Amino acid sequence: MDIDAAVFDVFGTMTDWRSSVASALADSGGQAGLHADWPAVTDTWRRRYRPALIKVVSGELPWMPLDDLHRLTLDEALAAHGLEAFGEADRDALVGAWHRLHAWPDAAAGLERLHGSHVITATLSNGGVGLLTRLTKRAGLRFDCILSAELVASYKPDPRVYRSAAELLGVEPRRLLMVACHPDDLEAAAGAGLRTAYIPRPLEWGPEADPVPAPADVDLTATDVIDLARILTGTD
Amino acid sequence: MDIDAAVFDVFGTMTDWRSSVASALADSGGQAGLHADWPAVTDTWRRRYRPALIKVVSGELPWMPLDDLHRLTLDEALAAHGLEAFGEADRDALVGAWHRLHAWPDAAAGLERLHGSHVITATLSNGGVGLLTRLTKRAGLRFDCILSAELVASYKPDPRVYRSAAELLGVEPRRLLMVACHPDDLEAAAGAGLRTAYIPRPLEWGPEADPVPAPADVDLTATDVIDLARILTGTD
Fold it and tell me: According to the model, what pLDDT value does residue A219 have?
C-alpha cells in the first residue's frame, strides 16, 4: 500500500483503557472505603463518552477539553452506580487516569518498527495534545508526531479532524492511513478521503464482552501493530 | 529549576541549517552548471527570513506556510547573487532542504536523556508540523511532542506562539522552559511568561562569523543539549 503516513486512534487501539481506568477507580474508591464492580463502573464511564462527543460535534454542547468531558461523564457514571460519595478532589484526580493508560503489548514494538521506516506515524485521538504527550511518553509509545482533535477544537468523527491530520502532515488524504479498532472511526476517516486499517482489539471491553463485528469495508486488516508494521514496510 | 516541560527552537539551536542548506544549494547549482559561494547564498537566504516573519506577525503579509515564505526569500537571495538561472522546479525542491537539516552532534543524545526524565520535550519552531516531523524523524531527534507556530497561524516572536505551547501541553508558562540560541527568541518567550535557557551555537553562521553576544537575562545557560539535560535532571 502506497502511503506516506499513518495516524492512530489511541484509546482502545493502542491502549487498554479498561484495565488501566478500572484500577485507578479501585484505588481511589478503596481509599475512600467504597466498594463496587470497578470494571462495570469503567464501562459505564466509557459508554457515556461517545454520546458526549457527538453532542459537541453536533453543536449541542460547546467544545471543551476532553478532561472536562471526562469529568462530566464521570459524575454521571458514579451516580449510575450509587457512588455519589466520591469527593470532588478524587473525581478531578480520576480524570488523570486517562493520561496514564497502559499500552497493548504489541504497540510499542510496532511503532518502533514504523519509526525506522519511511512511514510517518502520529496519534489522531480525541485526547488533548498534553494528555497524548504524557500518555505516549509514559507508555513508551514512540510516535513521530502528536496530533489531536483539539487542534481543530472538535472531536472525531468530525471530518475536519481527519482532514487536519493530512494538512498538518503535508500528505494527500489518500496517502494517509487511519489505524483504529473502531469501525465508526474508520468509516468517518474513509469519508474524509483517508485510507483505513483495522486492528481488532477483542479485549477492549474485557474478556467477557461480546465480540465486536469487523468493519465491512477497510483497505487492510492487521492482527496488531507489529503485523501492521510488517505489512506497511514489506519486511519480516 | 522546577519545570514540567522544555520547548526547543530548531533552526540553529538543534540543527546546523547553514551547512545542510549550503550543501543542497551546491548540489542543485552544480547540476545546473552554476557556480557561486554557496555558504554566502545560504546566509543571504537566511538573512531574509526574519524580516519576512516580522511582516507576517505585523500583518503586512498574510500568514502562509513556512515553505511558501522560504520560496519567496529564496527568489530574493538567488537574485541578489545573480543566480536567476535556477529553474522553478529546482527552487521548489530547494525549499525541501529545510526539511532535511542535520542535527548538532549533542542534540540527539541530550533529547534522549530528557525523554527518560519527567521533563516533557517539544519543538517550538516556525517550521510547520509536517516539516518538523520529517526533520526530527530523519535526524533522530526524539521529542515527546511536535509544536509549531503553524498551530496558531503565526510565527515567533508573536507571544501567542509561546502561550499556545503552555496551553497545549497543559503546563503553567512559568513551568515551561524555552530553549534557544537566539536572544530575541528567548526575550519574546520571557515576555510571554516562560522561563528561558540559552545554548550558544557559535558555529551557526559558520566558523568565520563574528561571535553572537550572549543574552543579558536568561534563567540558565547550558553549553549544549547534553549539558542542559544534566542541569534539568540533576544527574551526570
Answer: 97
> Would the pLDDT of B236 be above 80?
no
Angle at CA B119, nearest 5°, toward B117 and B122?
Answer: 120
Q: How many residues does chain A have?
A: 236
Is A134 an interface residue toward B (CB < 8 Å)? yes
Q: B180 φ, ψ to 5°?
A: -160, 160
Q: Are residues B146 and B86 in the same domain?
A: no
Q: pLDDT averaged over chain B?
A: 96
Question: How many angstroms separate the CA of residue A230 from the nearest CA in chain B?
Answer: 19
B110 touches chain A (CB under 8 A): no
Summarize pLDDT for A53-108 with one digit per residue, the tens.
999 999 999 999 999 999 999 999 999 999 999 999 999 999 999 999 999 999 99
Per-residue pLDDT at A33: 94
Kindly provide the ipTM of the predicted complex, given to two decimals.
0.95
Cβ atoms of B139 and B132 closer than 8 Å: no
Please, which residues have CB within 8 angstroms of residue B76's CB and are 6 or more apart in sequence? Answer: B44, B48
B136, B137, B169: residue with CB nearest A129: B169
Whether A42 and A93 map to the same domain: the answer is: yes
Cβ(A182)–Cβ(A9) below 8 Å: yes
> How far is it, in rounded angstroms, from Cα B79 to Cα B81?
5
- A42 & A78 share domain: yes
Low-confidence stretches of chain A (pLDDT beneath 50): none
How far apart CA A3 and CA A6 sit, in angstroms, is 8
In A, which residues are within 8 Å of B123 by CB distance?
none
Question: Locate cell 542535527: which residue?
Answer: B103
Does residue A117 sit in the same domain as residue A65? Answer: no
Check if B106 is active-site.
Answer: no
The answer to whether residues B185 and B123 belong to one domain is yes
Local confidence band at B101 (pLDDT 50, 70, 90 cut-offs): very high
Q: Distance from A172 to chain B by nearest Cα, in Å? A: 12
Give this prediction's pTM: 0.96
Helix, strand, coil proportions of chain B in percent (round to 5)? 50, 15, 35
A146–B142: do the CB atoms touch at under 8 Å? no
Using CA coordinates, name the residue in chain B closest to A166.
B130
Q: Which of B8, B49, B16 is nearest to B198 (CA)?
A: B8
Task: Note the pLDDT tens digit of each residue in B81-91.
Answer: 999 999 999 99
Which of B65, B83, B99 lies at the terminal end of a domain, its last residue?
Answer: B99
Question: Which of the listed residues A66, A99, A132 is the one where a domain comes to its end?
Answer: A99
